[in-house]
User: Fold DUF1648 domain-containing protein from Lysinibacillus agricola.
Amino acid sequence: MYRPILKLPKTKYEKIWDYIGAGIFVLSILYIFVMWGKLPEEIPGHFNGAGEVDRWGSKMELFILPFIGIFLWILLGLLEKAPHMHNYPARLNESNVEAFYLNSRKILNEVKNCCLILFAAISFQVVRIALGEAETLGWWFLPIVLIGTAIPIIKGIVATSKIK
Assistant:
């Protein structure tokens, strides 16, 4: 199958998503550090589908999401740099390879940054719940997670179908 290695610079769109995702994610980590001394020893460790706390754990668990986020940022960032390794339809050829690569990379970029934003929101809310400022993630959280991750994928599939 035709899979050339192309050096395609990041688009302005991808750079903006990176700044937004990384910026919000870094702010959530800073928020954890700023609030650390005010946090009780036990914080929410897990939530059910309704956003209610169903397990409490050590406040050290607050670093799990940032570590997963950093791991995802690194892994998906590496995959963004290797669009020739992504999965494409059989119609990939010399005339459309650049369009396919850019579209695939944009999907990955959006999903990566949506995950960072979602992890930041969860971290922020966990701190708020631990401090007694909120009781749950909120009923809206699961639908937003599902929609926030589905939209870039659906958008990408539609864009892929339009590439000739």
